[in-house]
Design brief:
Blueprint: H1 6-38, E1 41-43, E2 49-57, E3 65-68, E4 71-76, E5 79-84, E6 86-93, E7 100-106, E8 111-114, E9 127-132, E10 138-141, E11 147-151, E12 158-163, E13 172-175, E14 188-195, E15 201-210, E16 213-222, E17 230-231, H2 232-236, E18 242-246, E19 249-257, E20 262-267, E21 274-277, E22 280-286, E23 290-295, E24 304-310, E25 313-320, E26 326-333, E27 336-343, E28 349-353, H3 355-362, E29 371-373, E30 380-383, E31 389-394, E32 397-402, E33 407-412, E34 425-426, E35 431-436, E36 439-444, E37 451-455, E38 463-464, E39 470-479, E40 488-497
Parallel strand pairs: 2-8
Antiparallel strand pairs: 1-2, 2-5, 3-4, 3-6, 6-7, 9-40, 10-11, 11-12, 12-13, 14-15, 15-16, 16-17, 18-19, 19-20, 20-21, 22-23, 23-24, 24-25, 26-27, 27-28, 28-29, 30-31, 31-32, 32-33, 34-35, 35-36, 36-37, 38-39, 39-40
């Protein structure tokens, strides 16, 4: 009866304690190993301890080969790679497509995402969607890239609507009632101001000649029912005012009066102007209650103040040199507010993070910028579609700040912008584009992977469908002379596949 023997009981307890101790040691070793693995530590083939980093690689289309430092990797995109810390040249390849490549630095224990690489086809072939005898007066895409609106006909109030999700379907005719726009006795133009977030209403600026004088008015076009379109200028009763949508709603407005430098609000239901802010030289709204504006009510002589207004409170952000063009914009990324502030008279643009919170918390007169982008004669600023990148541009000079990785890039491109373009635009969340030499030019936010794509006229914004399967363009085509007709120039709305035939 061993359980009655004190010595055997003692030996049993000792064995249990040793066993528990060994298990604890094993668990501690395993935990340590897992912890070190979590921080990227490993052992190479020579038995040397190294620290790895994790790199995620995704492409569109996927299943692209991965070449690291000129050596083919066994994995294909989309995938993750555990790589020893160091410098790498990454090249992504897929049959029928142009390569995407860049240099990266892998830091031990770090995690990097490259989920934006876009592989463009080697061969680009544009097909005609519709041809026009004269250049279109307007070509505009809805924000969701579902519809393209084209105005090109003898009847200035007639439009065509193309459904990009059903590219083989014929266009739908949309007609604005003729009594909606003011009759002109000279040249007329259409200019896109802004689409509402319902992707149905678009605010257009109608320019026209009347008794030899240039005039303009704002028309709200309803692409779902042209008969419901209306003359917003007449509704507001202010022919000299400049109008923008408030909170992207088609029935709410910011109304700016240049003569008095007054910013007002109004609604379609109640078009009576309500004063919002005086002494406004320039403004950039966000949502319903946030506005960045430039005011001449500055505390320093010879300066103007860039100010953030939220609700009924105003917070000065910076004083800058007066100019004809102010660099102001704001957006939210991952819960934080980022603000761009600058003047075209200064060769720099400031970037702020949560500036209002900083002023409120520190009780400082002005917040401190987190980054300074030095650009000669800046003329345009904007956020990428996903708001991760901040871009400042001055002609062919660019400054881009990556708010996620806290890194900036300053560079100059060698391909000039074709007139009448004044700046590049974002293709998506990571690529910029403009027209140079009559062709669409695309490059990553840091100027890498520059590609020349399809031909297009520079007066129209380059358009993609919602899945980036097709690029749309307007081009001038020369029709050869025939026995009955002389040579002529026609204008073509065309689509260019961004996938090879195998992947479509």
């Amino acid at each position: 009866m061993d359980f009655l023997d004190p010595q055997k009981q003692k030996r049993h307890k000792v064995r249990l304690l040793i066993g528990y101790a060994l298990i604890a040691v094993a668990l501690a070793i395993a935990t340590t190993i897992l912890l070190y693995e979590a921080y990227g530590f490993g052992i190479d083939k020579n038995g040397k301890v190294i620290q790895n980093g994790l790199v995620f690689l995704s492409t569109r289309p996927d299943a692209a080969n991965i070449v690291l430092n000129n050596k083919m990797n066994k994995a294909t995109t989309n995938t993750r790679l555990q790589l020893p810390a160091g410098q790498y040249h990454v090249k992504l390849q897929r049959d029928g497509y142009r390569n995407w490549e860049r240099n990266i630095t892998v830091v031990g224990g770090d995690l990097q995402h490259f989920d934006y690489p876009f592989l463009f086809p080697n061969q680009l072939t544009t097909s005609a969607v519709k041809q026009y005898a004269t250049v279109p007066n307007l070509v505009s895409s809805t924000p969701d890239r579902h519809w393209v609106l084209v105005q090109n006909s003898g009847d200035f109030t007639s439009f065509e609507l193309f459904d990009l999700t059903k590219p083989k379907n014929p266009a739908t005719a949309i007609n604005i009632p003729k009594n909606v726009i003011t009759a002109a006795d000279g040249a007329q133009t259409w200019e896109e101001v802004e689409w509402s977030d319902d992707n149905r209403h678009v605010l257009l600026k109608h320019g026209y000649q009347k008794s030899g004088q240039p005039q303009s008015e704002y028309i709200m076009l309803d692409r779902g029912d042209g008969a419901q379109s209306f003359n917003l200028t007449k509704s507001l009763g202010n022919a000299s005012a400049l109008v923008q949508l408030r909170d992207k709603a088609y029935d709410q407005y910011w109304v700016y009066e240049p003569a008095t430098s007054t910013l007002n609000t109004a609604t379609l239901k109640d078009p009576t102007l309500v004063s919002y802010q005086e002494h406004v030289l320039s403004f950039k709204p966000y949502g319903n209650d946030k506005v960045l504006y430039v005011t001449d009510q500055s505390t320093t002589p010879g300066k103007v103040a860039i100010t953030w207004r939220q609700g009924d409170e105003s917070f000065p952000l910076r004083e800058v040199t007066p100019s004809a063009n102010y660099m102001i914009d704001m957006a939210q990324y991952d819960g934080d507010w980022y603000v761009i502030a600058g003047s075209s008279a200064e060769n720099k643009v400031y970037i702020y993070k949560n500036p209002v919170s900083e002023v409120q918390d520190k009780k400082a007169a002005f917040p401190s910028p987190i980054r300074l982008l030095k650009i000669n004669n800046p003329n345009y600023v904007s956020f990428s579609a996903n708001t991760q990148y901040v871009m400042a541009e001055g002609g062919t000079s660019f400054g881009v700040y990556d708010v996620f990785n806290e890194h900036q890039y300053v560079y100059t491109v060698d391909a000039p912008l074709d007139a009448p373009q004044t700046h590049a635009v974002w293709m998506d969340g990571a690529r910029l584009m403009y027209v140079s030499g009559g062709k669409r030019t695309v490059f990553d936010y840091d100027s890498t992977n520059r590609q020349t794509l399809d031909a297009t006229l520079p007066q129209f914004k380059p358009i993609f469908d919602r899945d980036y399967k097709f690029a749309y363009s307007i081009t001038a085509q020369t029709q050869a002379a025939t026995a009955t007709k002389p040579a002529a120039t026609v204008y073509q709305l065309g689509d260019t596949p961004m996938l090879t035939a195998k992947d479509q």
